[in-house]
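Human: Note token order:
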Amino acid sequence: MKVKVQNRAAPDVQSVALKAFSRIAEAWSLTAAEAAGLADMSESTWKRARKPEFAGDLTQDQLLRLSALVGLYKSLELYFNPPIATQWVKLANQGPEFEGERPVDVMIRGGLPKIIRVRTYVDALRGGV
């Protein structure tokens, strides 16, 4: 008996991830290009993906990105007071991960590995490291 392994996420997982990231993109005041870059999709795909009737499939990488970004959002909300929590990703940062650049630009350029490093960095700040 052969068991077929699927690498696709359940549609409800995808829709929840996209809905959450859409709200985060709005809270962070991301442009369509920035949101699409973080999610690793074209701007036109991002515009379609944020609608409830989106029928496309997200890759494992895209789902991991969205998950890490949700975690980063939560960490920022816990660590910083408003409005810094929502502005942080777009502010130039002198931290070791950013070298004076905005976290959003660094994460777009560095992809999933950098998104995870930035999330880990903020989690470490929260932990007092």
The chain has six helices and no strands. The mean pLDDT is 92. Residues 11-126 form one domain.
